[in-house]
Specification:
The protein is globular and about 55 Å long. The strands form four sheets. A six-stranded mixed beta barrel has the order 6-7-12-8-11-10. The protein is an alpha+beta fold. Helix 4 (83-94) runs antiparallel to helix 5 (101-110). The protein is built from ten helices and 24 strands. The two termini are 25 Å apart. The chain has helices spanning 30-41, 45-58, 63-80, 83-94, 101-110, 171-176, 238-244, 303-308, 310-316, 374-378; strands spanning 6-7, 11-12, 116-118, 124-127, 129-135, 138-150, 153-159, 167-170, 180-189, 194-207, 210-220, 234-236, 246-250, 255-258, 270-271, 277-283, 286-292, 300-301, 318-326, 329-345, 348-358, 370-372, 382-386, 391-395.
């Protein structure tokens, strides 16, 4: 989401999963545990569940180790949008006597009908818009917007898998489009700071001939999301990507086709426990792990890259100032820029002009060394993405 500019990449603070220390496991569990986690990383949640359920069934575990297994099962259910299972595993892990805010929120979600998609037995094509952004008269990247119908109203909303797990709306948009509160709340971690938010549900929304039902939204107070550069009315987040599966981008015609028969391509995308997607990218012969973020207006390198390559960046790049904004407000930071940066990833080579590297780690960043965004995707004639099968390829 507009990394290094007005960004509202969201990571929801709901699941405080534990992680078992290797020293706490029996040696024979090591390979099983690693296999289960690897299945999760590639979105194969059912396979991962089978591994961890097998550990519960076939091994005598301490109470602590059982909690660790239930935490892994909670992660899988949360990422899959299976809130009934998530709640069940949370109760098994923590009990019901003193429910946490997390458990109470997930219980509310578990009581809702499942998020689902209804579609015709054919390919569905949708035209998209490119929303150009400017700040102080300078071009600041662009966002992809898709036309949806919600509560009988047509709106062009942002496409953004960087909104981890859920869709997102401003309070104004939620109020005007019948997104109903479900009495569940949490915190949204943005680029600038962490702010309060609440959950709501839209009974339905349509995207072309695709009909989505019971879609959960994270709703952000207007004062934390308003800015003069981008109208952040609503965003179709990772749940929409998961429900649709394959998306074929034709960037010359500016269409996305949602094919009825989906391709079985090798997975080159991974997901972490917070729902953030990653791919590998080669920069200056170094292979980096970077976020795949279609809400990011521009591809950039992060403070993690800067810290690892400080001497090179300081000596070869030019120090300048950049503005970062989004959830929580706006701030200014020191960055370094280069005339161009060549990035090879997902089957394509992209030259990013006026490339930037941050020097300050954002609250919503993990260990990634950057993010590839819309400028990367839109520079190729075609691209194919499936964040259910976990692949993303660019090219002809």
């Amino acid at each position: 989401m507009l990394k290094n500019f007005f960004s509202v990449v969201l990571s929801l603070v709901l699941l405080s999963g534990l992680e078992m220390n290797a020293s706490d496991r029996k040696p024979e569990l090591e390979s099983l545990w690693a296999q289960g986690v690897e299945y999760t990383r590639h979105g194969q949640f059912e396979k991962s569940n089978a591994v961890f359920e097998g550990i519960l069934k076939n091994y005598r575990l301490s109470a602590k180790m059982k909690k660790e297994v239930y935490s892994r099962l909670c992660v899988n259910a949360d990422l899959a949008g299976d809130y009934a299972s998530n709640y069940r595993y949370l109760v098994l892990r923590d009990g019901k006597k003193h429910p946490s805010e997390e458990q109470l929120s997930v219980r509310k979600m578990a009581q809702l009908p499942l998020q689902s998609i209804e579609r015709p037995d054919k390919d569905v094509s949708v035209n998209y818009l490119v929303d150009s952004l400017f700040y102080e008269g300078n071009f600041a990247g662009c966002e992809i917007r898709l036309p949806i119908t919600i509560a009988g109203k047509e709106e062009n909303v942002i496409l953004d898998n960087g909104c981890a797990k859920y869709c997102v709306a401003s309070e104004r948009f939620a109020r005007e489009h019948d997104i109903r509160p479900i009495d569940a709340a949490g915190e949204a971690i943005g680029v600038v700071e962490t702010v309060s938010m609440w959950f709501g549900v839209a009974d339905s929304l349509s995207l072309g001939e695709l009909l989505f039902r019971n879609i959960l939204f994270v709703v952000i107070p207007d004062q934390y999301i308003d800015n003069s550069v981008l109208d952040i009315n609503a965003m179709l987040g990772a749940s929409i990507f998961r429900l649709t599966g394959e998306m074929a981008f034709d960037n010359e015609r500016r269409t996305i086709v949602f094919p009825r028969e989906q391709q079985d391509l090798a997975s080159n995308v991974t997901i972490d426990d917070n729902g953030t997607h990653y791919v590998e990218a080669v920069v200056d012969a170094d292979t980096l792990t970077v976020q795949l973020d279609l809400g990011s207006a521009r591809t950039a390198l992060s403070a993690n890259y800067y810290l690892k390559h400080r001497d090179k960046v300081v000596s070869e790049w030019t120090e300048t100032v950049s503005y970062v904004g989004g959830v929580g407000g706006m701030t200014e930071e020191k960055v370094y820029s280069a005339p161009e940066l060549t990035i090879r990833s997902c089957g394509g080579t992209f030259v990013r002009e006026n490339a930037k590297v941050s020097t300050v780690k954002k609250p919503n960043e993990g260990e990634e060394e950057g993010a590839i965004g819309n400028d990367f995707l839109l520079s190729f004639p075609k691209a194919r993405m499936n964040l259910r099968a976990m692949y993303f390829y660019v090219g002809e």
